[in-house]
């Protein structure tokens, strides 16, 4: 339920503006209009109410969280990943100019290195961390790096790469991943999973770049023993950005 006072308090607008906004909303909400309750002097949403602008559950939750004076919901704290601004700036400049840049990097598997040349090509977010996609001359392959793990003591020397490095085929390849509820779930559990993940048919298709499949598996929990979803098949459009794509299915 809502009335003009709610708009005034929430958005810090005038009474006249709130009246105008409410009138405009009522004109547009003709399919499921709210009803006015003269006793409580407020509008009540219809049972079949549909918003003018649909939102995801996360967006709706963010709206609820914005009501700081209503302690009805809570979100777990997120780690503050504060990469040094100068490091990000140097990587970005190298990326824009297609330069190779010399960095010192600490890996969680091999530890700190003595330095390596990379050519940054893209920034990537997995929803939690920001990565840098880059070609590594040390490993002779494309890899993803976390800017926060690049040492501020790196030389950051730059040069036009004299060595030839290959096209990033995995980046230029689109992956269509077809999912279904995990085998072994009861029909009721499978139905809930379909609702939870927004299935519109028998299978759910998720698209990403082949280079980012690892992050998708981790983000969606597909690599976990208690995963609720499983892959049915993966289709690849090879060299998508250059040729328009050739579909290949991996069972």
UniProtKB/TrEMBL annotation:
Q: Please give the name of this protein.
A: DNA-binding transcriptional repressor CapW C-terminal dimerisation domain-containing protein
Q: Which organism is it from?
A: Rhizobium mongolense
InterPro entries in the record, alphabetically?
CapW_CTD
Origin, by domain of life?
A: Bacteria
Phylogenetic classification of the source organism:
Bacteria, Pseudomonadati, Pseudomonadota, Alphaproteobacteria, Hyphomicrobiales
Pinpoint the DNA-binding transcriptional repressor CapW C-terminal dimerisation domain residues: 176-230
What Pfam families has UniProt attached to this entry? BrxR_CTD
């Amino acid at each position: 339920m809502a009335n003009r006072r709610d708009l005034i308090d929430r958005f810090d607008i005038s009474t006249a503006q709130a009246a105008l906004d409410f009138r405009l909303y009522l004109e547009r909400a003709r399919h499921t209009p709210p009803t006015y309750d003269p006793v409580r002097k407020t509008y009540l949403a219809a049972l079949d109410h549909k918003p003018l602008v649909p939102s995801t559950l996360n967006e709706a939750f963010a709206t609820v969280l914005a009501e700081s004076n209503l302690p009805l919901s809570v979100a777990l704290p997120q780690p503050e990943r504060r990469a040094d601004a100068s490091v990000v700036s140097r990587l970005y400049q190298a990326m824009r100019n297609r330069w190779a840049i010399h960095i010192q990097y600490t890996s969680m598997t091999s530890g700190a290195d003595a330095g390596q040349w990379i050519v940054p090509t893209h920034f990537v977010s997995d929803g939690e961390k920001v990565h840098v996609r880059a070609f590594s001359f040390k490993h002779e392959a494309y890899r993803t790096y976390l800017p926060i793990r690049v040492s501020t003591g790196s030389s950051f020397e730059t040069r036009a790469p004299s060595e030839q490095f290959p096209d990033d085929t995995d980046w230029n390849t689109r992956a269509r991943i077809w999912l279904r509820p995990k085998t072994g779930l009861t029909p009721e559990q499978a139905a809930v999973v379909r609702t939870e993940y927004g299935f519109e048919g028998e299978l759910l298709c998720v698209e990403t770049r082949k280079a980012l499949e690892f992050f998708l598996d981790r983000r969606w929990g597909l690599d976990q023993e208690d995963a609720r979803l499983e892959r049915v098949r993966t289709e690849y459009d090879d060299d998508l950005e250059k040729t328009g794509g050739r579909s290949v299915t991996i069972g």
